[in-house]
Amino acid sequence: MEFSELIRTDRAQAELRRGPEAAPLRGTLCVTGHHLLLSPGPQSTPDLWLLLLRSVDSIEKRVAGDSGTITLRCKDLRVLQLDIEGAEATLDIARSVEGLRLGDAWHFHPPERYYKRVARETNAWRLSEVNEDFSLCPSYPRAVIVPRAVDDDALSRSARFRQGGRFPVLSYHHAPSGTVLLRASQPLSGPQKRRCVEDEELLRAVLAGARPGARGIIVDTRSSHAAKQARMTGGGTEAKAVYPGWKRLHRPLERGRPLQESFVCLVEACGDKEQSMDRWLSRLQGCRWLAHVKEALSTACLAAQGMEREGACILVHGAEGMDSTLLVTSLAQLILDPLSRTMTGFQELVEREWIQAGHPFQLRCAHSAFSHARPKHEAPTFLLFLDCVWQLGRQFPLSLEFGEGLLLALFEHAYASPFGTFLCNSEKERCLCEVRTRTHSLWSGLNQPKEQRKLWNPLYVLNPLAIWPSVEPQSLRLWQGLFLRWTRPPEPAEEAWEKVWQIVTESQKTEGSQPTVSA
Amino acid sequence: MEHIRTPKVENVRLVDRVSSKKAALGTLYLTATHVIFVENAPDTRKETWILHSQISTIEKQATTATGCPLLIRCKNFQIIQFIIPQERDCHDVYISLIRLARPVKYEELYCFSFNPKLDKEEREQGWMLIDLSEEYKRMGLPNNYWQLSDVNRDYRVCDSYPTELYVPKSATAHIIVGSSKFRSRRRFPALSYYYKDNHASICRSSQPLSGFSARCLEDEQMLQAIRKANPGSDFIYVVDTRPKLNAMANRAAGKGYENEDNYSNIKFQFIGIENIHVMRNSLQKMLEVCELKSPSMSDFLWGLENSGWLRHIKAIMDAGIFIAKAISEEGASVLVHCSDGWDRTAQVCSVASLLLDPHYRTLKGFMVLVEKDWISFGHKFNHRYGNLDGDPKEISPVIDQFIECVWQLMEQFPCAFEFSERFLIHIQHHIYSCQFGNFLCNSQKERQELKIQERTYSLWAHLWKNRADYLNPLFRADHSQMQGTLHLPTAPCNFMYKFWSGMYNRFEKGMQPRQSVTDYLMAVKEETQQLEEELEALEERLEKIQKVQLNHTKVKSKQSEPSKQSGFSTSDNSTANTPQDYSGNMKSFPSRSPSQGDEDSALILTQDNLKSSDPDLSANSDQESGVEDLSCRSPSGGECAPSEDSGKDRDSDEAVFLTA
C-alpha cells in the first residue's frame, strides 16, 4: 500500500518510442506499484506493454509547452522514450517512477513502516529500539511498537518476565474502534505466581491508550489446564487480580508435533488411491486437519470480534508466542483490515507477523509431510495459516487481491526457496547470516511480471468491511489445490482460472478503449 | 379452503435457526397454497412464503413458557420454526397443514391454480420447447439400424413407457411384445441414447422375469437385435445396477437377471447401487447432520460418512462412468436395468449421457435429458417426491441424487457446463413445488389423461425465459472437453466427492460463500457487452461525422474506467456481514446471526417475475428467513442479483458525445 503513496498520478495519455525499428505505441500509460503499463488504443495491437519499474536504471524528464518527454534507461540497456500529454502529468509520472523504481523489496522494514501507519492513526504508541542488538529478545526484530507511556527500562523488565523475552508488543491497531491487537509469550509466573509490576504497567498503559473505559481480553491459545500446568515449569498466565481490566479466555489450538502428525496423516490420506469412499471421510476426520482450520479461524474471529464489536483490546499468547499466537494475530488482521487483503498488504503482513515476528521457519519447515525423520521442531503452522486464508478467499472470492497461486507459492518457498526471505528463525539470525546482502528477496521475485496471472485475483474489488467467515463444518473445505495438487488433473481448474482472467481483461480492455479521431 | 381451520394467527414468532435468541414477531396466514408469515416490523414487513407442496414434515413440539413451537421441514431443505402463543392455535395450524401438505387429488396441486398470465398460445409454445423427436433426430435417428416403433401406441404394451420409442430395426413387433412379457412391468429394452460416432447405444429396460431358470426366446432375440444394431462390436454389456445380493433375492420372486449362458455374446455386470429405501434413509441421516447446531468438525465428518450419502453418489457416478467408457472406448452397446428400470436405470443412463454428449451439458440439452430419461420413461415423480398423499415408503430422493451427480461434475469441470449451480437448485425446487405440470404423475400416460399440457404450464419454458440467470460465465463452448466425453480419472478419486452445502444448507445463508463469483462475472460480461455496443455506436457516429468533415469536432469520452469500481461497490457493500457466534458458550459476546446473505436469491427470485400480481411467489424471496439485512432488497426479486443490476444501471455513456 505504501507504494501507492508514491504514485502521484496513475495515468496519462502517452506515446512510447522503443527505438528506431519498433513502431511507436500510443495509448493510456498507467503507473502501478511495480510496473509501468501502456494499454494501446483499440486500433492497434491489443497487447499491453509492461515494464518492471525496478529494471529502470535512470530517468530523465523534459517539459515543453503542453507536453513532456520522459526517457527511461533500463538495466538491460534498453532506452525508452515516452511522450506524454500534459506538462503536469509528465512531471508527476516522472516523480512516481523515480520513487518507485528505488523501492527495493529488502527495504521492507515492516515494524518501522507499519509504525508510520499507526502513528497517523493514534498517538498512544511509539517505536522502540530497545531491542536494537537483539539482546532483550532474540526472536524480535530490532524495532517494536509499544505504548508511548512505557519506557525502555520497563520494557526490558517486562521482557525478563516473558518467555524468550517476548514482551507484549503491538500487532495491529484497529483505527475504527480505537482498539489494538497485541502479542507476547507467556508470563513466567511459575509455581510461586510471581509478578512483574512493569509488565502489569504495560498492559494497563495499553488500556489507557485505547478509548476510555476500554477493557482487555487475553486470548490464551492453550487450554486452561495446560496453562496451569505450565506454571510447574516456570510459565503460566496473567493473574486476574493483578491485571485489572483484563480477562482471560482459553482457546486451545493445536501446535507442535500433533499438528505435524495431522499434516502427515492428511497428505497420506490424499495420496492413498485404494481406499473406499467411506474410509476417505473417516480418514479426513481422523487426521483432524480441518478441525484445526476451524479452531484457528474461530479463535481469530473471536479476537477480531472482541476488537470490532466489543471495543476491547486483545492480547494473544500461548507458551512461546511464536506459533499459534501468530496464526491468530495475522488471521484477525486479515479479517478486519482491508489493506492486509491487498497484494502488497498481504506480503507485508506475512513479513511483519511471521518472518519479523520470529516464527522459526528453519525449525518448523525443516521437513514436510513425507520425511521419515522423527519430527522434532517441525510443525505446519504457517501452512495452517495459508489454509485459513484460502478458506477466507473461498468464502469471500472478491475480497482478496491475491489468488490461490500466491498461497501455493508461499507454501513452496517456506519449505524450500531460492530466495532468502524465509531463511533462518529470526531477525537476529538473518542479520548474522547477512541474508539481506547475500540473497534475493522472495517479494521482488514474486513481483516479476511472469506468472502474475496465477498470483493475482482478477475478481478483486476493494471491500472496506470486515469479512466474517463462517466456521461451520459445512462451510470449510479441504484445500484441494494444495493437498490434491499432484493427484488431481490440473487442467479443469487452470482452464477455469484462465477463463476468469479472460472475462475480466476483456472487460477492462473495453473500458479502456475509446474511439479516436484518426484524421 | 375447507381444510384451513384458522386462516390467521397473530403474535407468532419465527425463530432464527442459527441464533435461537433472535426471533421475528409477526402474523401467520394459511392460504390454499401457501403458509405466509409477515413480520410486524413496520419498515420491512418481510414476508416468508412456504408452498404447501414443499412441506415434508410438521412437528408440534412440547409447549414452553413462550408458546407452542411448530417445526416445518421442507423438501427443498428449508427448516422453519414458528412459536405460536396459544396451544390451541398451534394445534389448528398443525392439523390444517397436515392436511394441506398432503393433497389427495391432483387438482389440489398448485400448478392447477398457478397462473403466470400467459395466453393460451404462449402456454402451448412453452410445452413445445422441449421436443424429444427432435432430440432423437439430433442423435442421428432413425437410421439403418434403429427405427421409431409404434408398438406402444396407446400404451398397449407398457403403460409406463412413452408411445414413441426407438428400437433396433431387426426387432419385430413380435419380438418386442414377447420380450415385454418377460420383463417386470413389461418394460422391454428400448433406446435411451445413441452414440453417433461409433453406433454404440445405451438401452434400458426392467429386470427379466428369469427366476431360477426361465428363458424367453424373444427377449434373447431382442438383446441380439441390440447387439446387431452396432456393427462395431460383437458383444453387448448388460449392466444390472443393483447389488448382486438384491438381484439374486429377486430370483426367488420369479424375477432376477440375465443368465450369460442363455444370451449370446453378452457380458453381464453388477454395479451395486442401493435401493430407494436405503437412499431415503441415507438422506435422512445426512439431513440430521446438517441440522446439528454448531457441530464439531468430527461430528460433521463422522455423520456425513455414517449417512453413506457420498458413497451412494459415487456408486451412481461409477456406474455412469462405466457405461460411458464402454460406449466411447470399447464401442460396445450397453443394456441397463435395475428392478423396474425407472429409478437407478434413469440415474445411470442420464449420467452416462451427460458424460458422453456435450449437448446435455448445455441449458437446453439438460432439459432434454431430464425430459427423456426421467419424464418420458416413466420415473414415478408422484410417488418418489410425495406430491400426493401416498405410501411414505415410495418416497426417495432419486432425482436429487442425479442432480447432485451433475453438481459434482460441475465442481470438477468448471468450464464444461453451460448452466450454473442455481439452475440445478431451481429444478430441484420445482420437482417438489408442483408449480409446473412437468413433473406431475407417474407416467406419460397419466399426464395425458390429466391433460397436463392444457391445464398447467411448463417449467422448461419458464427456465428458458430466464436463462440469463442460469448461465455459467466460465462455460467454454469451444472447450476441448466440450468436444466429447468428459474424462474422469480412472483411479477411485474419493476426494472428488464433496458435501453440497449450496443445496442441503442453502437456506443457511451464513454458511454459503458471501460473494458470488458467478454473479460477478456475469455482471462483468454484461457490462463488457454494453460497452462494446456503445463503443461500436460511437465509432459509427464518429465515422459519419468524419465523413461530413466537420472541422471543429471534438470527441470527448467520459472516463469509463471507474464504472467498475463504482458499479459493483453496491453489491460489495452488501456483503457486509456480522460475526457469527465464535465464542462457543461464552456469554460475553452476544451471539449474532450469521449475517447477511448476499444477494444471491437462491431460488425464488426468478420465479417471482412470473407473477407480479400474485403475491405468492414474489414473496418467496422470503426464505432468507434468518437473514436480517435483506430488507433493503425488494422482495420482488425478478431482477436477480443486485450485482447484475448495478451492472446495468451504471451511467449510460450515451451523452458522452459532445460536438462543439
UniProtKB/TrEMBL annotation, chain A:
Gene3D superfamilies per the UniProt record, alphabetical: Pleckstrin-homology domain (PH domain)/Phosphotyrosine-binding domain (PTB) (2.30.29.30)
Matching PROSITE patterns: PPASE_MYOTUBULARIN (PS51339)
Pfam families documented for this protein: Myotub-related
Top-level lineage group: Eukaryota
Segments forming domain Myotubularin phosphatase: 105-483
InterPro entries referenced in this protein's UniProt entry, alphabetically: Myotubularin, Myotubularin-like_Pase_dom, PH-like_dom_sf, Prot-tyrosine_phosphatase-like
Protein family according to the UniProt entry: Belongs to the protein-tyrosine phosphatase family. Non-receptor class myotubularin subfamily.
Protein name: Myotubularin-related protein 9 isoform X2
Gene source species: Galeopterus variegatus (Malayan flying lemur)
Gene: LOC103594932
TrEMBL record, chain B:
The keyword Lipid metabolism is assigned to this record: yes
Subcellular location: Cytoplasm; Endomembrane system
Domain Tyrosine specific protein phosphatases: 307-351
Gene3D superfamilies for the chain: Pleckstrin-homology domain (PH domain)/Phosphotyrosine-binding domain (PTB)
Annotated Polar residues bias: 560-596
Keyword Lipid metabolism: yes
CDD domains: PH-GRAM_MTMR7 (cd13344), PTP-MTMR7 (cd14583)
Domain Myotubularin phosphatase per the UniProt entry, residue ranges: 126-504
Coiled coil spans: 521-551
Short name of one Pfam family: Myotub-related
Protein name: Myotubularin-related protein 7 isoform X1
